[in-house]
UniProtKB/TrEMBL annotation:
Residues 1-18 form the signal peptide. GO terms for biological process: carbohydrate metabolic process. CDD domains: CE4_NodB_like_6s_7s (cd10917). It comes from Pseudomonas batumici. It holds the Pfam family Polysacc_deac_1. Keywords: Signal. This is Polysaccharide deacetylase family protein.
């Protein structure tokens, strides 16, 4: 099996170098079934987990020079990559254990998995036969998972010089790993937009769906909205939703000399403008923050709220539907987590309704924004 994995790793390395560095997305129409029940969600989830696990295993065969070439980087942090791989394996085992609970209802992609060793054995042997009902999905799924894995390994490789959502820096930081199975939190970055913009439409849509989202606002954008409208109008905008802070400007808080003031000014403004909606959470732009910032956040009684599932909507490389399809595929993979959209992007207005429609009968739950990180 090691020989097979070696040649798979070599081919993946060559393909990755040749491929454009776009966010991974998967055409969900290649999957032959609708996710019209919890059991069918589990079937798609098991397939997604096993495909990703197979490619994760393949990547571990590569030595450091080969991995540098595959990721397109001159220097990589192998210790960080190994730590991220280890955490991924733990999450994959948790996800597969949950997904296999419905194997008596539908045995597709059910393998004997009871521990890490058996999961890795199943992943090593995993393939979709040429005559399989799911064969149209196999190659697009392989390409998606390979590219998504490279996205994550590249984030790990750049640590600690470039911080990101790939790593928690202490017990003051949170993501969706601790959520219950099938539970997701919708979050939105970069707003608010000006009146009657995307933020208004998204917040209104969520209220109609009886879902609470978590909106991370920029201080300067919120101040501009207040200046053009009024405090009562802003409170109506975020009615039944939650509001955290993203700093005063959308810029990295890892090297910015005034990063503390950026956060404090934003917190004060949000607490004054929408006190009933405020939650003591900071979302770092680009996921970048200082490694020595824990004392500041604890002193301010703030938590850092990261994400597990990036929609890729801000890159300009994906359409709204591609962004939604990416999110849906990652929901199948991780089975829980914090989803990030940007309410400054038109894509979220189309992607979110598509996503909710496609998963409406899948047995998923949407985390209450007030309870998410308590």
């Amino acid at each position: 099996m090691r020989i097979v994995l070696f040649f798979s790793a070599l081919l993946a390395c060559l393909a990755a170098v040749a491929a454009p560095n776009d966010p991974a997305t998967l055409d969900r129409s290649t999957w032959p079934e609708q996710l019209s029940s919890p059991a069918l969600f589990d079937v798609a989830s098991r397939a997604q987990i096993l495909m990703f696990a197979h490619l994760l295993l393949v990547s571990e065969v590569l030595d450091e020079p080969a991995l540098k070439k595959r990721l397109g980087l001159k220097q990589i942090n192998m210790a960080a990559i190994d730590a991220v791989r280890h955490r991924m394996w733990q999450r994959l085992l948790t996800s597969y254990n949950a997904a296999q609970q419905s194997c008596e209802q539908d045995a597709s992609f059910c393998f004997y998995v009871e521990d890490m060793d058996s999961l890795q054995k199943a992943a090593g042997k995993f393939r979709v036969a040429d005559d399989s009902f799911y064969v149209r999905w196999a190659e697009p799924a392989r390409a998606f998972n390979e590219r998504y894995l490279d996205e994550q390994l590249r984030l790990a490789a750049l640590l600690p010089q470039t911080s990101s959502e790939i790593q928690l820096m202490g017990d003051h930081e949170r993501n969706g790993e601790a959520f219950n199975d099938r539970l997701f939190l919708l979050t939105f970055d970069g707003g608010p937009t000006m009146a009657q913009g995307n933020t208004d439409e998204l917040a209104d849509y969520l209220r109609k769906q009886k879902i609470s989202g978590l909106f991370f606002v920029l201080g300067n954008a919120l101040q501009a909205r207040l200046d053009k409208t009024s405090m009562p109008a802003v409170r109506e905008l975020y009615r039944q939703q939650c509001v955290g802070v993203e700093g005063w400007q959308y810029r990295s808080h890892s090297q910015w000399q005034d990063w503390e003031d950026s956060i404090l000014r934003s917190v004060a403004l949000v607490q004054n403008a929408v006190p009933d909606n405020y939650v003591a959470l900071f979302r770092p732009p680009y996921g970048q923050r200082r490694a020595d910032s824990a004392a500041f956040f604890k002193a301010q009684h703030l938590q850092v709220a990261l994400w597990d599932i990036d929609s890729g909507d801000v890159t300009g490389k994906l359409s709204a539907e591609q962004s939604a399809q990416r999110v849906m595929t990652l929901m199948l993979l991780w089975r829980r987590g914090v989803i990030v959209f940007h309410d400054t992007q038109d894509k979220a207005r189309t992607a979110l309704p598509w996503l909710l429609k496609q998963t409406a009968e899948s047995g998923l739950g949407w985390q209450d924004c007030k309870e998410a990180f308590r």
